[in-house]
Fold:
Amino acid sequence: MAVALTESETKKAVEAFTALGVCEELATAAAALGWKGPSEIQSQSIPQALEGKDVIGLAQTGSGKTGAFALPILQELLDRPQAFFALVLSPTRELAIQISEQFEALGAGIGVKCAVLVGGIDMMAQSISLGKRPHVIVGTPGRVVDHLTNTRGFGLKQLQVLCLDEADRLLNLDFEQEIDQILKVVPRDRRTQLFSATMTSKVAKLQRACLKNPVKVEV
Ligand code: AMP
Structure:
């Protein structure tokens, strides 16, 4: 549970997030989660992402990396609301669920709709959630490919932002083939963010395949 900030802490937190370029509405949502100010990875990567740059972030779980990619995505969505705006790929279903919860918490005030596409959960229920035209999709690569192949009417031609979270784990879990399949059906003209705890040769290869002149941030 988030610990509520005092009025002066909230004011400071909102000021610190808006100083990065985050709009007042989302800065207030971050403060409402008990965030007293941006974490280091957020300070370094949010301004770059808001400028439309591809970002590679070397950061561990617990660093606030989810907020680092979620806040810019939500802000772009506010400017240009659109279905199937962003896809976040995560190595595990638990992480995918946590990421979508954070999108929903930060985006509650702006009515963001998320769909979670992970294994072990009924395909049909997920197809129905895709039919509601969510703004953000969070999923594991295998299940995302499954829906791209089998769910009628679902495609990613409109995608604006692709985010690969915990890229080192995605690759260690042998999701390479699925990621390649996804890269083939998303627009070339998009923004991409890649987060990884470690920079392995496989991550470097993936970075070359899917990011354009990325800004590297490291904590
Ligand atoms: P993550 O690294 O994205 O998995 O985030 C780990 C935890 O840190 C989550 O529970 C977030 O709610 C929390 N968190 C993210 N950003 C901040 C922040 N700026 N201040 C305090 N907590 C945060």
Notes: The first strand starts at residue 55 and ends at 58. The CA atoms of residues 4 and 34 lie 5 Å apart.
